[in-house]
Each structure stands twice: as structure tokens, then as C-alpha cells.
């Protein structure tokens, strides 16, 4: 119930969260690739 009340009274916050989640989903592949790239480069340099 607290979640529903929070959702009802904070539309701007929910919009920001939805936008953030959308950005995370949209850039997930690129982020994973970048993280793996940095990981492999750092391992190679050691």
C-alpha cells in the first residue's frame, strides 16, 4: 500500500525513475561491453 501511495503522490519522481530505468536498459549492452573491455585491458596490463 505504501508503494501505491508513493506512486500516486510522486509522479515526477516516478517519471525520473522510469526514465533512468529506460536509459539503463537502453545502454545495458554498451555498458557491459565497456566494463568487459576495461576489465580485460586492466588484466592484460597487469
How are the secondary structure elements laid out?
Blueprint: H1 2-9, H2 11-26, H3 28-45
Transmembrane segments: 15-41
Keywords: Membrane, Transmembrane, Transmembrane helix
Q: In a nutshell, what does this entry contain?
A:
The chain is mainly α.
Structure in words:
- The structure is a single chain.
- This protein is an all-alpha fold and 46 residues long.
- The protein has one domain.
- The protein is built from 3 helices and no strands.
- The longest helix has 18 residues, at 28-45.
- The mean pLDDT is 71.
- The chain crosses the membrane at residues 15-41.
- Keywords: Membrane, Transmembrane, Transmembrane helix.
Q: How many angstroms does the end-to-end distance come to?
A: 52 Å
Strand runs, count = 0
Number of domains: 1
What is the assembly state of the chains in this entry?
A: single chain
Bin the helical content. Answer: over 70%
Instruction: Estimate the mean pLDDT confidence.
Output: 71
The proportion of residues in beta strands is: under 5%
Unreliable spans are none
The helix count comes to: 3
Cα shape: rod-shaped
Radius of gyration: 18 Å
Largest sheet properties: none
**SSE pattern:** HHH
Keyword list:
46 residues, transmembrane, rod-shaped, single chain, mainly alpha, membrane, transmembrane helix, 0% strand, 3 helices
